[in-house]
Amino acid sequence: MRTVFSFLKPYKLPAGIAFLLMLVELAVELMLPFFLGMMINAGVVNQDVNNIIMWGSIMIGLAFISFIAGIINSFYASHAAWGFARDTREKLFEKIQAFSFANLSMYPTSALVTRFTNDVRQIQNTIFMALRIMSKAPLIVIGGVTMAFIVNARLALIFLVTVPLLIGFLLWVLKVAGNMFDKVQKSVDNVNRVMQENLAGMRLIKAFFRRNHEQSRFMDANTELAARTRRTFRFVESSMPILLFVMNLSLIFIIWFGNIQATAGQTSVGEVVTIVNYAMRVAMSISMFTFIIMAFSRMKASANRLSEVLTLDTDISTKKLASKNAQVKDGIVEYQNVSFKYPSADNMTLKDISFTVNAGEKLAVLGSTGSGKTSLFQLIPRLYDTSEGKVFIDGKEVQSYEMDTLRRSIGYVPQSPLLFTGSIAENIAWGKNNATKEDIVTAAKDAQIHDTIMDLPNQYETKVGQKGVNLSGGQKQRISIARALIRKPKILMLDDSTSALDLATESKLLQAIQDYQCTTLIITQKISTAKSADRILLMDSGEILDIGAHDELLHTSPLYKQIVESQFGKEYAHAK
C-alpha cells in the first residue's frame, strides 16, 4: 500500500489544507454543544434574552465559518484525489508498457482493466471522502469524549466502557471485510473477462449461434459477483445495529444519571444537555464507521492489487553494462545453442537452436503448428529472453543493446494483425515517430495497399474500426506490413503475415521488400513464399530439422519434399 500512496506526495499541500479546513469544521462541531449548554444555563434557565441572543449569534457565526471551510475543503480534497488518480493511472500504464510477455501472461487483460478503472476509482473516492468527512468521524469520537469529560467527568465515565468496546469490534469487522472485498474485486475481474471475450468474439458467437451459452456464462459470473457483494455488504451493514444499540444504551444511561444529578443539584441542566449532545455526535460518528469500514476495506483490497502490479519485477531489462552507443547496423542475426520455455511451461519450446542469418539475407521458416516458429521470432526483439544459449545481432548479445535501440531497428508483423482505432494514415505512421505523408504513402505502396486505400471514400483518412473490423484480413495484413516498413528496419520479421494475400500481390510485396536492404525472416506455410527466400529453415517440435535453399532441401529433406508434394503435386517435386 505504501507504493500506491506514494503518489499522494505531490499533493501534500492541497491535502494538508483540506485536512486543516476539516479540523476547523471539527472544532466548530465540538464547540457548538458547549455553547448550547452555556446558552441554556445563562439564558434559558434564567430567562435572560440577551444571553440567548449572544450565544445564539456566536453559534450562527461559527456555523457560517464551518460552511465556508467545508466548501473550500471540498475543492482541495478533490484536487488531491483526482491528481492522485491521474498520476497512479499514468504510472500503472507506464509499468504495464515495460512488462515482458511473461509478465503480461500473469494477468488477464480484464484484470488489468479493472485495476485501471475500478481499483483506482475506489482509492480516489476514499481519499476524497477521508479528507472531506471520514477523518472527522474518529476525531469527533475522541474530541466528543474529551469535551464530555471537561464538562462533567462523572457523566462522561460511561464513554470509557462503550467506546473502547466498539473500537475493538470495528477493527475485527475491518479485517474480515478486507478479505471479503478482495474476493469481490476478483469477481469484478471475472465479469470483465467474460464481457471482453464476448465483445471480441461477437461475430464467432453469432456464426455458431452460441448466444445462449455465452449469456449463461455471463449470468454465472454476474451472479457470483452479486452474491459476493451482497454477502460482504450484509456483513458490514450488520455491524451498524450493534453500534447503534450500544451507543443508544449509553445515551439512556447518560440521561438517567444526568436526571438524578440535576435533581440532586450536583449538575446543571445545560451540562446534561451538553453531554447528551456529545453522546449523540459520538453515536452518529460511530454509525458512520460502517461506511468508513466499507470504504477502507475496498480501498485496502484495491491498493494491494495495484501494488502487486506496480512492484512486480519485470523479467526483461537492459543490462547495466549495455552500451548506449550500440546500434544495429547490418542486421546479422545469430542463434547459439538457444533453448527456451515459457514461464508456465514444463517442457522446452525451443531446443538447442543454432543458425545465422547474414545481413540482407531472406530466411523462410517452415514448420507445423506448435513447432516453435513464433517463439523463435520473439527472442530477437526480447519479447522473451532465452532460457539457455544466446541470441546475437551484429555479433553482440541482444541484451547488450538498449531496449529502445534494439526494437526501433526491428520491423515486426505479428501473426494476427492488430490495428488501432483511428485513420489508416495514423495506423501506418504508428510505426515511426514524426512520419511524413510521403513516408506513409511510400510504405503503403511497398506493402501493396496504396491502390486499395485510394479507392476508399476518405482514402488515407478512412477511419479504422476497432481492431480493423471494417477491413478484410488481407487489408489488415498489408497495413500492418506498411507499419513495419515505414521505420526502414534493419531486421524485418513477418510472422505468417502474408497468408491472406494472393500469389501476385505477395510476389510484388516480397519484391518491394528487397529494396529495403534489410535482413528478412518470414514464417510461412506456403512453398511459393519459401521459394523466394535465400534459405529455408525447417522446424519441428522446437528443433531445426534442416536448413538450406529450396532446390537443396528438395534433395536432402524428405519432410520438405513431402510438403512440396502436398502443395504442388509429385510431378513438380520430382521434376526439381
Q: Can you characterise this structure?
A:
The chain contains 23 helices and 12 strands. It is elongated, with a radius of gyration of 35 Å. The relative contact order is 0.08. It has 3 domains: 2-310, ABC transporter transmembrane region fold (Up-down Bundle); 326-409 and 490-576, P-loop containing nucleotide triphosphate hydrolases (Rossmann fold), CATH 3.40.50; 416-488, Rossmann fold (3-Layer(aba) Sandwich), CATH 3.40.50.300. Helix 8 packs antiparallel against helix 11 and helix 16 (437-446) packs across helix 18 (473-485). The mean pLDDT is 82. It has 576 residues and is of the alpha/beta class. The strands form 3 sheets. The chain has a 6-stranded mixed sheet with strand order 6-9-10-3-11-12.
SSE diagram, text form:
Elements: H1 2-5, H2 12-44, H3 49-97, H4 101-104, H5 109-134, H6 136-151, H7 153-156, H8 158-200, H9 202-207, H10 211-237, H11 239-263, H12 269-310, E1 333-340, E2 350-357, E3 362-367, H13 373-378, E4 388-393, E5 396-397, H14 403-408, E6 410-413, E7 422-423, H15 424-429, H16 437-446, H17 450-454, E8 463-464, H18 473-485, E9 491-495, H19 503-513, E10 519-523, H20 527-531, E11 535-540, E12 543-548, H21 550-556, H22 558-568, H23 570-575
Parallel strand pairs: 3-10, 3-11, 6-9, 9-10
Antiparallel strand pairs: 1-2, 1-4, 4-5, 7-8, 11-12
Helix pairs in contact: 2-3, 2-6, 2-12, 3-5, 5-8, 5-12, 6-12, 8-10, 8-11, 8-12, 11-12, 16-18, 21-22
